[in-house]
Amino acid sequence: QAVAVLQRFHCACCMSVVVMNMVEVANDNPNANRKEAAEHLSGNICRCADYNRILNVAERAMEYPRNGVRS
């Protein structure tokens, strides 16, 4: 949902892997912060190299479970 709302993937080549990893982060640690998300997503390669934008989406996505929004 965060990806759809923020539309933050420039070329979307990495989108599927990043989304799956964001789900894993949220499931493993619903209270993860930006630094923890960055560590978890560090193995993902973005062809556009817009990692800050990806982390913004990850940060927003992890807010959803805390606010009762289900993916």
**Arithmetic mean of pLDDT:** 75
Any low-confidence stretches, pLDDT <50, length ≥5? none
Number of strands: 0
Q: What sequence of helices (H) and strands (E) makes up the elements?
A: HHHH
CA distance, first residue to last residue: 7 Å
Main pleated sheet: none
Distinct helical segment count: 4
> Based on helices, strands and strand pairing, what is the structural class?
mainly alpha
* Percentage beta strand: under 5%
| Fraction of helical residues | 55-70%
Assembly state here? single chain
Rg, alpha carbons = 11 Å
Overall, the morphology is: globular
Commentary on this structure:
The protein has 71 residues and is an all-alpha fold. It is 61% helix and 0% strand. The chain has four helices and no strands. The protein has helices at residues 2-6, 15-28, 34-41, 51-66. Helix 2 packs across helix 3 (34-41) and helix 2 packs across helix 4 (51-66). The chain is globular and about 30 Å long. The mean pLDDT is 75.
